[in-house]
């Protein structure tokens, strides 16, 4: 079949239109504005950057002269999915991670022992009362700031006071009292 000049021109136009439509479908840009429900003014999602907080106990705790916390008193701190509770003392000078077996704290201690040629900045106590000094860093853990009060976390009682923080294992009564000036294991 022979096409006339007019038919050839019509076929050419149809081919150009089809080619242009196909090319437009392969474009790497799309006109319009991005929409992100719940996003901030710049169109970007916002993520919390602050540390999680916990409400303080409803009744202020009065420091007791005894070294043994009262069972059943105080707020319970919930563990993470991995079984840890992360706390920070009211002064901000000590951070700790607590699980059912151990309490490990990091601080700038006065006259700490030397571990692997470095001054220790961490100490760990087990539920059985064993202690280990560490030179290391807890990293960017999501701590809960404590007030001067009594708390409970994964089998430990935490008695936070202006003098330091006492961790007592509820099952064994072993633990430690920690401050930047000293660590006492019991």
UniProtKB/TrEMBL annotation:
PROSITE patterns named in the record:
PROKAR_LIPOPROTEIN
The domain of life is Bacteria
Q: Where is this region: Disordered?
A: 43-77
The organism of origin for this protein: Mycolicibacterium sphagni
Which spans does this entry mark as compositional bias, Low complexity? Answer: 45-59
Q: Which UniProt keywords apply?
A: Signal
Q: What is this protein called?
A: Lipoprotein LpqJ
Q: According to the UniProt entry, where is the signal peptide?
A: 1-24
């Amino acid at each position: 079949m022979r096409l006339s000049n007019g038919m050839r021109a019509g076929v050419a136009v149809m081919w150009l239109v089809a080619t242009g439509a196909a090319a437009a479908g392969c474009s790497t840009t799309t006109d319009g504005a991005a929409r992100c429900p719940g996003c901030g003014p710049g169109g970007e999602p916002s993520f919390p950057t602050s540390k999680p907080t916990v409400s303080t106990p409803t009744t202020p705790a009065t420091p007791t002269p005894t070294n043994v916390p009262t069972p059943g008193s105080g707020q319970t701190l919930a563990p993470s999915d991995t079984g840890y509770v992360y706390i920070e003392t009211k002064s901000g000078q000590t951070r700790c991670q607590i699980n059912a077996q151990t309490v490990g704290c990091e601080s700038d201690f006065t006259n700490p022992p030397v571990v692997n040629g470095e001054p220790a900045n961490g100490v760990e106590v087990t539920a059985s009362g064993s202690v280990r000094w560490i030179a290391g860093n807890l990293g960017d853990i999501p701590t809960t700031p404590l007030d001067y009060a009594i708390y409970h976390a994964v089998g430990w009682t935490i008695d936070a006071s202006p003098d330091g923080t006492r961790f007592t294992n509820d099952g064994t009564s072993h633990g430690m009292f920690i401050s930047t000036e000293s660590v006492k294991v019991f």
